[in-house]
Structure formats: C-alpha cells, structure tokens
Amino acid sequence: MSLSRMVMHGGLALVLLVVAGDSRGQAQEAATGVSKAATDGVPIHLTAEQDRKRMLDLLGIKEADMRRPASTDAKAPNAANYDESKANEYGNLPDALRLQDGERVTTAKMWWTKRRPEIVEEFDRVVLGRTPANLPKVVWEVVGTTHGIIGRVPVVTKRLRGTVDNSADPLIAVHIDMTLTTPANATGPVPVILEMVFAKDYPVALAGPLPGTNSMQAGQYAVQALPVLERGWGFAVLSPTSYQADDGAGLTEGIIGLMNKGQPRKPDDWGVLKAWAWGASRALDYLETDKSLDAKHVGIVGHSRLGKAALVAMAYDPRFAIGYISSSGEGGAKLYRHIFGEPIPNLASVTEYHWMAGNFLKYAGPLNAGDLPVDNHELIALCAPRPVFIGAGASSGDGYANPRGDAWADARGMFLAEVDAGPVYKLLGHKGLGTAKYPPMGTALIQGDLGFRQHQFGHTPGPNWPTFLEFASRYLHVPGGRAKTP
Question: Which structural domain range is residue 352 located in?
C-alpha cells in the first residue's frame, strides 16, 4: 500500500511516494536528510543553498555557528588576511612521517603500508570524501579527427567522448569530453600533457588546429600547446564539467548523482574535486589504449580550482607521471593552517562547498584549521616520489587593490606545504625543494623532484609554463630519448 504526498524541504516542493514498511527508504532518509523519491533514480533537484543547508542539518550545525567567509574588501570586518605576521595562527602541523599511534616512520615500507593509508583515510573521511566502490565503466570513442598545423608543427587532433555506463540509473547520462593533439610526424609513442580546462575554454580546444593553415588557435590553449608539441609530446585537453557540474545544485546529477541514483550526498561522500580527478583517471585509461602515446609518461596540469583537482588526481592515481599544479590555493597545495588569502570558511560557502566532502563544513564552524587531522603538505606527499611542480603569481603588496594579483591563492602557503612534503620524498630516496627559504620572485626551484616558481603576472598559469616544461623534460621523453623515472 502506498500514497503520494507533497512536502516542503528548504522551500522546495517535492512529490514523494511513501510505501508502508519501506525500511530501505527510511534508512535512506535518515542518511541523506531527504526522503526517497517516487521513482528510483529520479534526481532530486535542490539549489546549492538548499543542499548546503541540508548537509549542515545532517551534521547538526546551525548556520549561525559557521564563520563568515573572508571578504576581498579591505575595509570589511571579515577582510582576508594579507599580513604574513598574522598568517601562522595554528602551529600544530601534522607530521607526515609520524603514525597516529606516535611511532616515527623510518622506512619506505612503513610509509607505503602504514602511514600513507592513514593519510588517505583522513582525506577521504573529512576533506575530499570517499570515492564510491564499483564505479561504472567508460567506453571511449573518437568522434572526429582533424589534420592541421599548430605553429610549424603538423598535428593530428582527435575529438574524444567517453560514455559512462549508466545502467545503475538510466535517467542520469554522463559523458566525458576530451581532445588529443599529437605531432603528425612522431616516430613512436609520445609522452602526453593532459590539461584540465574550464568550460569556457574547452570550445577553443575543441576547435583544434585549422586544417591546412600555418597559424595557431588564439588563447591560452594554443600558447600552452605549441611548446609541448614542439618538444615532440602530445597535448590533451579534458573538460571536467562535462561529467560533473561545478555547482552544488548539480550534485544529484553527473557522476556523483549517478552513483547516488539522483539522491543527495551523505557527509563522507566524495565532492566535486574527487569526481573531477576520477574523470582525469578515466581519460588516462583511454590514453593507455592509444598506440601513438607513451602512457607511462603522462603529466597532469590544472589551474586554480582545476589545480586543486589535478593535485587530487596526482595524489590518488599513481599512473600520472608528473604534475603542474598552478595557483591551486586553499583546498589545493596551500596549507590550511597558513591563514593568508582564502581561508576554510570560503571553501565551506555556498559557492564552493561542493568541491569538498560534507564533513569538511565542520572545520568552518565548530572546528577550525588547527583541528584538521591532515593538511595539504600531506596531499603533496601522497604524490611522492613522482615529480610535482607548483606555480603561483605575485601575492605581494595590496591584495585587495590589485585585481590581477594572486594573493588569494597564497603562494607562500603553497611553498611551505612543499617544504613539509620534502621529508617524505627524502625517505623514498628523492629530493624535495632543496631549501626552506622562500625564493625571490621569478626564481625557479627545479633541481629536486618538487618544483616551485612564483611569477609576477597575476592569477594565470602561462608565465610558469616554460619553467614547468624545463622541469618536465627531465622526466618525459620522445621516442629514442631517455627519461628519468622516479
């Protein structure tokens, strides 16, 4: 016996089907805070505000207990901090080489079998969320091929689409969009740089090189692709928002929604950064099948929020050979405990909370950065011993008055995280930055397996691109060459 009823949730009318004795639906309601939908798999549509409020309710947190996000208005009472002398409010940085029971990690075996799993578990539990088990297969197809020239390099560009098996919920379709450009005259399998790009930039990559022309496409895509192709490497472009929206309102669709059959997340479910990283790994799955590529030498690149996602992908998928993490800031390579620029309350705001696990909201309310069981030096350490280059723009001077500055991403906070990841690299027989002294603007630290450079041109990856390629050339190679392998 069943009956339909309408309820209001956060101002949203939902038509629900109540089935007498449906213990599964009752259990789901208890876990998610939203009753089971009338038809299995029909996505429940909540606004980001409603979904965030639902998560706070699940956590037992009142909005009044949440700290206000930092403002970019220097005169605001909650103005972001840009005073380095006030940045180190929390001094209890977790030791990446000490087990939770206090024992010191002294061997590589202890790192791999004991400490690293501990760190992964804490990131999964309270920061990034747990990646679901039994994720669906992705079937890739080439939907278009173009021959052309970028700069002076003859190239072949493939437009690719990955179709995610949605048999678990046929009402939610998920696709992964990617392009792959390779030198047409390559004599063997080539390394690849895989860049995650924003939705507004992907159409430029989709256009590819103009057939029969001798000119580059305009924009950042061509600026970054050309020197990669000139080195004889391939250049792939991935659109993360093709498979998971950058919006809390989209959490019941995309790959996250598919795995939850259209229902909202539980507090420890994965956030969008983890989902974007999952898609990067599925892109790498395709690259491994392409005989023109050397899939053991694939680098991953991301800027800003996609820099966060690229770092997560690098940390969780050991197949990525190298990473360029640009201006990733809070939630990326920046120490949460270094209170400069963007702080945790901004990540917990309605415009950003979806990147993280629901549990992360607690650290912008009853708890703070000092209560986190992990920090982002350990996220970098999860990449060890593979090489990671971290870049940023200028953050000196008045961060409010300079809209082209990169103060919000906190370059020094990212540098400090690399310094504290260094001991893990050393334990595994590799080199960190080689210094704990912050370098002058424009100075490249690329002698070790961790790299860093801050340029003076604001929130953009371009000025650090040549330095990254120089760094990467120690590890990636063209047919007939040799590569240093961590």
Answer: 138-472
Name which of 24, 9, 12 is nearest 57 in CA terms.
Answer: 9
- pLDDT confidence bin for 10, thresholds 50/70/90: very low
Least confident residue range of 196-205, 217-226, 273-282, 356-365 = 217-226
For residue 132, which amino acid is it?
P
Q: Which helix (H) or strand (E) holds 22?
A: none
Residues 33 and 147 in one domain: no
The mean pLDDT value for 106-118 works out to: 98
Those residues whose C-beta lies under 8 Å from the C-beta of residue 473, and which sit 6 or more positions away, are 231
Domain presence at residue 465: yes
Please state the domain count of the chain: 2
| 175 DSSP β-pair partners | 163
Confidence of residue 479 (pLDDT cuts 50, 70, 90): confident
* CB-CB contact of 372 with 93 (8 Å): no
Report the run of H or E that residue 423 belongs to, with start and end.
helix 411-427
Using alpha carbons, select from 294, 260, 94, 120 the residue that is nearest to residue 190: 294
- Omega before residue 117 within 30° of 0, cis: no
- 86 exposed, middle or buried (CB, 10 Å; 0-12, 13-18, 19+)? exposed
**What does the block give as tokens for 189?**
């399998």
Q: What is the pTM of this model?
A: 0.90
Residue 104 domain-assigned (yes or no): no
For residues 206 and 352, state if they share a domain: yes
What confidence score (pLDDT) does residue 199 get?
83
Identify whether 173 is part of a domain. Answer: yes
DSSP β-bridge partners for residue 322: 299
Which runs of E-coded beta strand occur in 284-358?
A: 293-303, 322-326
479 in any annotated domain: no
Is residue 346 over pLDDT 70?
A: yes
Say yes or no: 13 and 146 in one domain: no
